Amino acid sequence: MTNLGEALSRELLRTNRSGAYSCSTIVDCNTSKYHGLLVVPIPEFDNENHVLLSSLDATVVQHGAEFNLGLHRYKGENYSPKGHKYIREFDCDKVPTTLYRVGGVMLRKEVVFRHYEDCILIRYTLVDAHSATKLRFRPFLAFRSVLEFTHENSVASREYHNVDNGICTCMYAGYPNLYMQFSKKNDFTFVPDWYRALEYPKDKDSGYYSDEDLYVPGYFEIDIKKGESVVFAASTSEVKTRSLKALFDKEVEERSPRNNLFHCLVNAAHQFHNQTNKDERYIISGYPWFKCRARDTFISLPGLTLAIEEQHYFELAMKTAERGLREFMEGKPLTVEICEMEQPDVPLWAIWAIQQYAKEAGEEKCIKMYGSLVRDIVGFIMNGNHPNLTLETNGLLRTEGKEKAVTWMNSTVKGHPVVPRTGFIVEFNVLWYNALKFAANLADCVNSEKDAVMLEEQAEKTRKSFVATFVNEHGYLFDYVDENMADLSVRPNMIFAVAIDYSPLDRSVQKSVLDVCTRELLTPKGLRSLSPKSNGYTPMYVGEQAQRDLAYHQGTAWPWLGGFYMEACLKLYKQTRLSFIERQMIGYEDEMGINCLGTIPEMSDGNPPFRTRGAMSFAMNVAEILRTLKILEKYTYKKVDV
Asked: pTM of the prediction?
């Protein structure tokens, strides 16, 4: 904690499941414009989150001496104050807890974010002190979008008014009020000032503008006795201060421990839950900048819900997503807050997600809940109603992706896809074959023999064409085939042809594909997006935005693909690969204590030391590791039974 080189690379994320979050480093030094103590969505403005309260500096005052526990980085790599030097212990097993020592003073700080409320709670407890002690709190306000920076200006309002044990203020018109209150009576001193040239190194390293000014309206002072606790609340609505201590205890009680890989990932899974005022349920694709995306939702749902015995949330989120899917298929405007519903593989991933539900809930319930949706999606595609998904006479699906990225490999430079995957795309057609076989099985379950036979015939045509089109003489699959051009790049998208339940490949080809993925794509942090032997391999996701966009899918490693890889291993080799998969999982267990604690970041470099990059917490990654743990558990039980 006292080594900034180690501490500043570790982040903490807490969400309220309604779109707001709180995030900083473990020493409370913001290193990115996305960091903030209270960051909330403001739909009236835009579709982005906004930092209201950037940070809160606590100062211990004893015998007239002041010891500021805060930490900020200013331009020129200057850190002030240097409160991290007072940290003696840190723990985030249940809630983030920091123990400070200043001479004979021991002060403990604990933080929770209220579920479904835009309210952050911080409890300060004076564990030990030998004389009269006072705490001083100085709030740093931003009132800006996470995509922008704020600077000293004459427009910002300095007005505030007193509320119960605190103040209420709002810097700009249209923003919600920020209430800052304590569980105990305090004195607020109005000393308005701007703290200038704070610098965010993560933004600077990415080639962005990286400094801003923050407004401090004044400071609060509270006398505190040994053994006493004081709770601070920052919220967009006024709280009852008498209940703050009990409220904090209640919130802590509801938190589950993060004492192993599984528990960490379960907590991370819950952070992606999102409930709107309309009582709709969504899956946030990642933090801090992603919203709800259709493809990510369907890939993530099984791992984030079914793998942790939360079938109910699967049904709630799928209910919202199904409405969006049907609106898209019927050509109606979307009434749900899910973007990229038009992407051609989205309905195929939806069927895959429902297929996972059938494994957990049983085919009978699956048919009752989603049988008509599966039938309608397959019919929608077969009837040629999707604007960018054509069923050709050979039984394969064709997609146009030259001018616009249409797969999960969606990075663009100057408006054009970096990886222009077009024509017959390998995972699209794997998913299509799987969808046909699954739909045929459901039709058979309801004694719809005619439909089942038709779907099986279509699936067989697709299977034969898939083998003829994608299997090459080198033992792996072409990534995409467009007219007379077949892409020879070794990419991880072929792993789905092995992992998914209904594979169009025979067992020998499946093993060959898996072997190629193992030799050329496997890393401790997932599968590379491109083999080092393929042209264009760019393993390091560094530099300015354009440079990073070029590297995004050209060699970086993705944990969610690693999840499908491990499923493929177990599918083909059963218990004989258990120890190998368990060793592979160590890379993800190590991730719990570095970067963003307790979760899985978006991706990592494709070369050692496989440094993680991108979003600090990514839904598909967390989901697939959880799903792998669930699958691994089943095979482990089988081994024990034997």
From this structure: 0.93
